[in-house]
Design brief:
By secondary structure, the chain is an all-alpha fold. Helix content is 70%, strand content 0%. Helix 8 runs antiparallel to helix 10. The radius of gyration is 21 Å and the shape is globular.
Amino acid sequence: MPRLPHRAPGRFPAGSPAYGGRVLLPVNVTLGVVLAVLLLVAAGVAAVARLGRAREILVAGVRAAVQLAVVAAAIRWVVGSVPLLLCFLLLMYAVAVRTAGRRMTSNATWRWAALPIAAGVVPVVGALLLTGLVPARGIALIPVTGILIGGALTATVLGGRRALDELTARRGEVEAGMALGLLDRDARLEVARTAASDALLPGLDQTRTVGLVTLPGAFVGMLLGGASPVQAGAVQLFVLVALMAVQAVAVSVVLELVARGRVHRVPGVV
């Protein structure tokens, strides 16, 4: 991935034609009202359709606003200090682990979610730092690591939930496999593997349709920052490929944890 380009002094200043004569989203009262209306619409539709997630949507929206406000206020301090940078990255990881684990199960085995997320993210981030593609500075490391942790979180949740749901629904098949002589792990894998692999579909579809259906955030952000279309495309390609690697590892590890009974919903039950 090419380094983020250094914008020459005076090039593409805010308000110039490169930004369409204005910033992309002005932070003002209008933006706040529009966001509030959109959040209420999302919760309202969920309530009318009886999806059972209306309250969660409202809470998620408010939390996102508060968390982003805090991060925006603290980011300038974090990027200038290595200890603070490491603490911030660890906080991101810890929140991802708890979120993913609690989505899979409510018992103490949720802590195993730390393994698939770390297994997917740490090697990729380490390789990027060692090769110099991403400098060890907060302004570059935080967004890249955040994207990868978010991808690992999503893959872990989807893969783990689908595997556990499938084992519950097809418990009889697992027991039949054990009766035929299969090890517990192997019998569970035979049932859960295909379901867990569905967790890779969102990332695959996003990668296959990039540029045709959507222009993802990394691409648009690079363009707005003054990068050339080629540089922006290279960065976006890197993000998508890295995400596929991270998610493939995360799904594989969480599937193995479920198959070995490390992550479960009811002790002693498939």
